[in-house]
């Protein structure tokens, strides 16, 4: 077989099918995830991209001997058609046309459909198994991933050095966190819990790493016990002496290869082991079950404590957003002026140039470590691709009278930022102003919401969509995702979306507020600030706590794209108050030239 690096996707699909035949199976499921269910995965785990060409952050493929399909959500319905051949894969919507339904419709009786149990959770496998079995087939785990067998130049697993996350930024010691989780386990009547999410482990142990791009994680597993003891299953080469000294003798470091044997020991000892069926690899759950463990199926016990940011984390987040906002002002001044000046020349500003320029501004900011994700830099029609990833080949010029969308963020030692701004290069038309203003009105509606304790994101989502719905418009992505503190820019369990997490919003939770509108082939609009859930008193006549949101992102919203006649007096007041706050906080960090630009960009309407 030739080196697969030189093979096109048709040849890669053919090689996989030949391997499946050798393994005695009739199909295979290829998820976008790694063993840790992460959004950002290392090059070694980019199996879906290698096989199909799809580079988005969420997706799955199903491969049979005579057909295949690729499943993506609403963010990627346009992108998948640009990256993946329809001759090789049928395009399916991950939510509306799920993989289990496709398998039920396409698998024949007696077929053996395989999967890698390290790459799928128990919940995911349950749904897929139901579809396969309804068709008369059987879903079987494989001990070796057949795609890895034909990916001959597959990169090695990452092995970067870890570092301790200091108490000044973490706000709580690892010992205190472990004791907190131990008490939660006791309450759940569990002796220990398997942690498979690297951000849970990073938060619990106060460690950070560089195993994946843009998210400071150490890829590893851990088991935390009700007495606060922890076994950390991590490549010893990742654990520096500095990290070891920051951990105490209740944290045992063990090689990842010993995880399964240790879990079998826990099972034989009759321990009650908590696993999260939504995130823990099915391989671990099945191993514990087979070994006779008493399984407690529940949400990762670290998720909620991690989501509720403490005072030090919140102070750091606010400080990071002030510094990041100043960098954004410098960028927006440059991009709006330079793009217009160069629009009719042979040297226009391009999407890629904008990415590099914004990074250069952030790199000058104290405590900056990395971008928090690949910057989405979309000019004109590329802005309509919600999660567009610019390349040298796709990079468009920023043209006169076109909309430019920039979605970006920074990883700072004291906080993670994520901000989207949409600007006009020149003069907008009336449709652009209408759509932008409706997105802004939805953004304001969510920003100013008050809601009782127990409210979850699905109950708030429609507030952001109402102004668009009034005009028969909508957007096919969530309105808000959780954000970590020098951790993942996407963090659960809290969300604001049509199909949202049932987890109620609580004070200290940190989320995005990002309604949008996308006109395929023409432009995209999104306005994104980050918000913190906070106490807002009590419900009138009741003893029920009332919550609202604190906005922490500081950056002008393009006044040229606003149609004030659509807005209420309260909307206009919010915008003017927001811009006054932006001026007050950012002006001390800017020189006279940028202060003058900021004053004009944030004048009252």
UniProtKB/TrEMBL annotation:
- Start and end of every Peptidase M24 C-terminal domain? 546-605
Superkingdom of the organism of origin: Bacteria
Q: Reply yes or no: does the keyword DNA damage apply.
A: no
UniProt key word Metal-binding: yes
Creatinase N-terminal domain residues are: 12-144
One of the record's GO molecular function terms: metal ion binding
State the Pfam families in the record. Creatinase_N, Creatinase_N_2, Peptidase_M24, Peptidase_M24_C
A single Gene Ontology CC annotation of this entry is: cytoplasm
Keywords from the UniProt entry: Aminopeptidase, Hydrolase, Metal-binding, Protease
> Which residues belong to any copy of the Peptidase M24 domain?
316-534
Q: InterPro entries attached here?
A: Creatin/AminoP/Spt16_N (IPR029149), Creatinase/aminopeptidase-like (IPR036005), Creatinase_N (IPR000587), Pept_M24 (IPR000994), Pept_M24B (IPR033740), Peptidase_M24_C (IPR032416), X-Pro_aminopeptidase_P (IPR050422)
UniProt family annotation: Belongs to the peptidase M24B family.
The name this protein goes by in its record: X-Pro aminopeptidase
């Amino acid at each position: 077989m030739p080196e697969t690096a030189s093979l096109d996707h048709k040849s890669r699909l053919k090689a996989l099918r030949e391997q499946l035949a050798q393994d005695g199976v009739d199909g295979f499921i290829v998820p976008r995830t790694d063993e840790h269910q992460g959004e950002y995965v290392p090059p070694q785990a980019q199996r879906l991209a290698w096989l199909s060409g799809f580079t988005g952050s969420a997706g799955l493929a199903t491969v049979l001997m005579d057909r295949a399909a690729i499943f993506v959500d609403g963010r990627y319905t346009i992108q998948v058609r640009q990256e993946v051949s329809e001759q090789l894969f049928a395009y399916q919507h991950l939510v509306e046309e799920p993989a289990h339904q496709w398998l039920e419709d396409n698998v024949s009786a007696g077929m053996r459909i395989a999967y890698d149990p390290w790459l799928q959770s128990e919940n995911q496998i349950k749904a897929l198994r139901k579809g396969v079995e309804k068709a008369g087939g059987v879903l079987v785990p494989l001990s070796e991933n057949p795609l890895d067998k034909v990916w001959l130049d597959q990169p090695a697993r990452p092995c970067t050095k870890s570092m301790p996350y200091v108490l000044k930024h973490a706000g709580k010691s690892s010992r205190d966190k472990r004791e907190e989780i131990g008490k939660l386990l006791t309450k759940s009547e569990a002796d220990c819990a398997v942690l498979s999410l690297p951000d849970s482990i990073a938060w619990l142990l106060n460690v950070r790493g560089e195993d994946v791009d843009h998210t400071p994680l150490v890829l590893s597993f851990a088991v935390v016990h009700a007495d606060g003891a922890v076994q950390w299953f991590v490549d010893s080469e990742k654990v520096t002496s500095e990290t070891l000294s920051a951990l105490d003798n209740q944290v045992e470091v063990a090689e990842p290869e010993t995880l399964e044997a240790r879990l079998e020991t826990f099972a034989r000892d009759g321990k009650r082991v908590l696993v999260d069926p939504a995130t823990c690899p099915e391989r671990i759950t099945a191993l514990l079950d087979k070994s006779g463990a008493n399984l407690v199926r529940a949400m990762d016990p670290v998720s909620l404590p991690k989501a509720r940011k403490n005072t030090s984390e919140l102070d750091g987040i606010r400080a990071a957003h002030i510094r990041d906002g100043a960098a954004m002002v410098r960028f927006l001044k440059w991009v709006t002026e330079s793009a217009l000046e160069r629009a009719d020349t042979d040297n226009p500003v391009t999407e890629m140039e904008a990415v590099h320029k914004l990074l250069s501004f952030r790199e000058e900011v104290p405590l900056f470590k990395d971008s928090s994700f690949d910057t989405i830099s979309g000019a004109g029609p590329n802005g309509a691709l919600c999660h567009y990833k610019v390349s040298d080949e796709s990079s468009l010029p920023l043209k006169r009278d076109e909309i430019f969308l920039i979605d970006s963020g920074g990883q700072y030692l004291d906080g993670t930022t994520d901000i989207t701004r949409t600007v006009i290069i020149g003069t907008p038309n009336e449709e652009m102003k209408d759509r932008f203003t409706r997105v802004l009105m939805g953004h304001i509606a969510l920003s100013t919401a008050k809601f009782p304790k127990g409210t979850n994101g699905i109950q708030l989502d429609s507030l952001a969509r109402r102004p668009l719905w009034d005009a028969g418009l909508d957007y096919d992505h969530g309105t808000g995702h959780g954000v970590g503190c020098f951790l993942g820019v996407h963090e659960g369990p809290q969300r604001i979306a049509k199909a949202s997490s049932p987890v109620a919003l609580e004070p200290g939770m940190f989320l995005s507020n990002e309604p949008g509108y996308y006109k395929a082939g023409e432009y995209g609009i999104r306005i994104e600030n980050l918000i913190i859930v906070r106490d807002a008193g009590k419900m009138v006549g009741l003893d029920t706590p009332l919550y609202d949101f604190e906005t922490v992102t500081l950056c002008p919203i393009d006044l040229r794209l606003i149609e004030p006649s659509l807005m209420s007096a309260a909307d206009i007041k919010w915008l003017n108050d927001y811009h006054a706050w932006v001026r007050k906080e950012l002006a001390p960090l800017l020189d006279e030239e940028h202060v003058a630009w900021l004053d004009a960009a944030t004048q009252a309407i």
